[in-house]
Each structure stands twice: as C-alpha cells, then as structure tokens.
Amino acid sequence: MYNIYTFCIEVENMDTHRNVKILIIDDKEKLCRILKKDFEHMACKAEYALNTYETREKMKIYSPDVIILDLRLGNESGLNLLKELKTTHQHIPVIMVTGYGTIENAVEAVKLGAYDYIQKPVNFNEIHQRVLNAASHKHLRDENIELKGQLKLDNNILITQNQNMLDMLEKLRKLSERNFPILITGESGTGKELIADFIHHHSTRKLKKIYKVNCAALPENLLDNELFGHEKGAYTGADKIFKGIFERANEATLFLDEIGDMPLEIQAKILRTLQNNEIRRLGGKSIIHVDVRVIGATNKDIHEMVNKGQFREDLFYRLNLAMIEVPSLRERREDILLLVDFFLRELSETLGNHLKSLSNEVLKIIKNYSWPGNIRELRNVIHYMEAISDSDIITLQDLPPNLLQTSVQEENKFTKKPGDSMEEKLIRETLKSCRYNKKKTAEFLKISRKTLYNKLEKYGIQL
Predict the structure, then answer these.
(1) N or C: which end of the chain has fewer CB within 10 A?
(2) Are 375 and 189 in contact (CB under 8 A)?
C-alpha cells in the first residue's frame, strides 16, 4: 500500500534520523535483541520489553520516539496494549507487527491509533524505513508544537514548516504581547482567522475569549448595531438594551474579519473608538469606555482601496502600526503535503474510517496545482476525494472535475508529449474502470464521444 508518510523524509533534515529512540515490544526476546542490535548499527537507540508489565516500567524511565509493537504478546493482546499506549502516550507513533490472522487485524490497529503496520517475517530495511518515517512525523509535530507554530487553538490547527511563515509567527509572538491593533492581509483561504487566534493566544488577554465579526456578512445598519449596540427604544422593536460586541469584548480581543468591506461611516466610528477607547450605543447619550485589542483582516488590496477613497486613510494608518501579510499556499508549497496528511488523518479520526492515501498521479496534481483558494480549497478537495473514493487509495477518478481539468490545462502549457500527459493517464484509467465502454467513459469524463475518439487517436490508444 502506498503510504503518504514517505514524503516526510523529503522535507525533514536527515540529521534528525540519528539517535532516534525506539522501544521494541515483543514476547520473543531473541528477536528483540536482534532488532535492537540492528537499529543500534543504524545510529538509533533501542530498548525492548517482553510484555505489558515491562512496557509500563520501561515507559517510566524511557521516552521513545517510535514504538514497535507485536500484535500478540504470548497470552496478552497487543491491541489492548495499543489502546493503553494511545491513552497514556498518544503522540508517540506505534508501528504494529503482525504475523497472525488477516488484514482486518492491521486495519483494527490503525483504527485504534497505530501509525503503521508491517507483517512478519520482518524485513529490517523495511521496518527501519517505517521507523524513520514515523520519527520524521513525530519530529515535525513536536518541533512545530514547541518551536515553530503548529498550534491548537479553539479546535483549529495552524500547521507550517515554511520559513517565511515561521519568521512571521516569531514576529507575531513579539507583537502579540503589546496591545496595539494589528492588520492581517492575504488572499482568501490563507488562514487569517487562525493567525488572529495565534495573536490572541500569545497576548496578555489570552485568558479572555476572542470575539469575532465578519464585516462583509452584515448590512450597514445591522453591522453598526452588532458593533456598538443600542439603547431601549432606539428604533422600532428595540425593546431592551443591547450591548454591542465592542462592549462585550471589553478587556479582550476583537477580530474584525473582512474589514475592507466595512462602510465608510462605520469606519469613522471604528476610528473614534480606537482613538478614544470609547463608544456610544445607538440612541444613547452616555459615553462608554472600553479596552479592546482590535485585529483586522482583509483579502483586498488595502493600499489601492485607500488610494480610491474606499477605505479611510486615517483608519488605515491607525491599523497599520503592525501589518502582517499571510503567504498564499503556492508560496509555501512545502506545507501542502503536511496539510494533506493532517486533513486525511483528521477525517480518519472523525469518521472512524481507515486512513486513506493518495496515488502518485494525484500527489503530482496536488503538489503542482496553483491553489487559488489556498488552504480552504485544499481542505475541501481532500474532503471531496475522501468521500468519493471507494478504496484506500485516492486516484485520478476521485479528483473534482474542475481541478482535474485545470491541472490538465496547466500541464498542456508546458508539455506536448502524449506519453507525459495527465490527460492520457486519466483516459486510460477511466477506460479501464468502465470496462472499455467508450460511451460510459465519455459520460464520466463529461466529453462527447466524438471528442473521446479524437483523443484516443491522438494518444494512440487502441481498443
């Protein structure tokens, strides 16, 4: 089976594979000693345990990067021990070794949280490679969590190993400690809201919640009311006092998403609030003092909007004290496979399904596609393919039609060789899956039969 985690080695420094700590759990001591010796020859560190009791004792004093666990430990169940390990040491990848039963045993192990599985007789080169893959995955996770910005915030995850992103996050850690406004810019789908969460999490206000308003989702009168509130009797139907979000976010953080879509009149009121730290409810006479840290975000060219008079220059300069631009996904391509890995695992854990992987052809498209919708588009594509796919391997036929067509068009700009064409591969795969029925193949590809015949002739495909 193709395993997506082989790509972790490509993005990781090979020096991190030295001194990988391994715990071997198997009731056959001779095999344990052989594996321990072999791993130590490969500059790894290894210990072993023969049963559940020894495993518990070993884990008290030894912190492995990877665990190799036999499915059967004499009279004990390796699956039961796996459940225990995933409860007490959930971030340590476990590779199951099985020489018994059917493939269902391995599938069950993966559902319980095993990182991978391998069948006996053990081929050392193969298990060594699996261990390095698992160690790379754990290293990336640990390094991101502790040092570089994989951060869980209100059930949202920010994942990156792109140096520009990492530099940006480090700058934001410092800026977060101050209470001045921050403006986040970047294309739609790049994760600006996650960046706002990151800022709040590292600020002095992190014990309070972060309040959020999408300025493009409300018409002007409702947005005014949502931001600043109203007094009883301010308008027909205002039968009680309503506190606006500025008032509710006192001593906390307020995230104004799509701030570029905010009407000019509202912009003026926001400016006064930032300047004077005070608001007035609609229909009210008294001034209410507020202490709110504002984070704004927009996917528009804010400089051009200022030049065209669509965004107040004075408000821009008030927010421009710290302006951060989030890179697009095509500018951080090294993150694509990490994000694919995360989304697939997230789906597997949420749905309780077997972890799916991508075929080489799909991986090529995923890595080379321009992703105009950025991370949001990538996530939607992964969700679509996982739902459509009937097997553990996601193939070209599972791609959304528009993504496939765009990829073929992009490829054809750079290659005219039929043998290298993604289109040819797709046609051949579809023909095979449709049992070489040309009518069904044309219907699936959403092309006419005449177009299909022309392409068959073009690529020299004979039936």
Answers:
(1) C
(2) yes
